[in-house]
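Lay summary. Proteins are chains of building blocks that fold into shapes, and those shapes determine what they do. In this project we predict the shape from the chain. Here is one chain we studied, written as its sequence of building blocks.
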Amino acid sequence: MYLDTTRSVPDADRRIDVRWRAVRRDLAEQGADLPTLEALDDVVGGVPDLPGPQGEALFATEGKVLGAYTLAAAPTVDSARSLPAPDPLLLAFDRDHQVAHVVVAVDREGADVEAFPAAAHEPAFQRTFNGSTLHITRVRAGAEAQASFHRRTVNVWNENTAQAAQDVREAVDAVEAQVVLVAGDPKAYGILREHLETLPVPLVQVGGGRADDEARAALRQGADAALAEVSATAHRTALEELKEALGRGQALEGIPAVKEALAAGRVETLFLAPDSDAANATLFASRKDPLLLGTDPAAFGEDPTVFSAPAHLLLFRAAVLGNASFSELLPPMRCQDGVAARLRY
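And here is the predicted shape, written in a compact code that computers can read:
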């Protein structure tokens, strides 16, 4: 089930309860058993302290909740389906736009470093470093004394930033970050960049800092804007690569061709459009061989585990179990049935 659990609105608890009751009735009409509905009763509601829009994806069966996930964006429509296999597509689309990242607020004394896995609202890695502050400010003095003070200042900045850089490297490794967002003192940022020249992910400078709550709020706002651009750039690149691969015969489009490629283990990346023909089409699958998909259950012989489900769900399932990656098929790119695949070979 997918539910809007935004809490930054008046009377949020009542609104969420009304939404859940409507979805619950729908699930009961579809045949969901009472123990499963009661298990969902215990967990539904989203994250109480999370600001801004949010949604929730819940998966349950036989009286047990199998997964509960927070969505960065609320679903446009609350929905729930009782199916023979889970439908994680909306969750996958949400995750496809999230980026594992590191946020750094740096100044002359040290840095605050936080690492966030994709779609996480709490850091998985957090470290604050405040180094030496001796001679951290350059002073006016005689020529010889002034030069000495300046050398000491630069040395302290360099030493402090070197430790901050080590924290950044560990943070990147901790969450396999795709980008490091840095805010704060321009001089300290410049030194940090020098220490991180060999870092395998890009550094992006954003506004804000670590001085006070206002600076931290500006940092979070700048980080969100930068992450949105990183995600958009990654999608543009992926779609350009798909377009070129289609032209070279190294990609396929349409349900018939893609399902055969999935069965053969040839798919490197599956592309799906949210509102596609694949959402309305039906395919058959087997629990014995999840990569094999068909339009006729007779093709599976006497296999008693065969079941039917929406085509886009089973294509995604086969891609995941075949170790393929996934990306959303976004306008203006269009493909037959709203489905495409880049091939491994």
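What the prediction tells us: The CA atoms of residues 284 and 297 lie 6 Å apart.
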